[in-house]
Specification:
Number of helices: 6
Number of domains: 2
Structural class: mainly alpha
Order of helices and strands: HHHHHH
Amino acid sequence: ANILLKNSHLTKTQLETLLIDVLVENLAEKQLSFEEKAKLRLIKPSVTRGAFNRTLKQARNNAVKAIYTIMLLGYLGVVENSSLTPYIEISNKLKTYIETYKNFLKNGKTEEKELIRILREEMERMLLEH
């Protein structure tokens, strides 16, 4: 996650804020106020609702701009869909890796540990190729 974050257009604080906004209500199974969400931040805790909302807006804007940049480059022919395919594959592998890792932590099965190793090596190879 750190490598992805480092090479993204999001700061750590923006990512944390975005994740809190998106995930916390699903986990809590109830709607939380922005004041409550702001208190959940680990990076610079005890921020105001306004600061939380500004950071959330910045995170959303940066994510949307990244998507528009990809669309623009595709439209101009600078990046073709086929050149994005490997990155989509890596993203899917990452998702599988995380799910397998969570299952391993929960169940501790040896075959899942081996699968984690294989997936990690495969992702590293794919990243080095692109």
